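Lab notebook: predicted structure, single chain.

Context: the supervisor wants predicted structures on file for every construct in the current expression panel, including those that have not yet been purified. This is the next one on the list. No modifications to the sequence; it matches the entry in the shared construct table.
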Amino acid sequence: MLGMDEAIVQTLESPEVILPSVSNPDSVVEYFRFFRETSRVEKFVRLVVKYARNDAFVITAHLARRIPRRGE
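Prediction complete. Output recorded below exactly as produced.
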């Protein structure tokens, strides 16, 4: 994700898809946004964000080929 700071910000500000986490749907959310220009090929940026009572933080950020179907 080196050099993808702006893509991370855009994904948080304007996600195309928002999904609750399968393992922790009450406090973890997955954000996806498609980008044509990444370090490789066209990919989705996937951010996993954990929300706590007075805080939120990104658990992970990476490129994904697709948005997972729930149950995968």
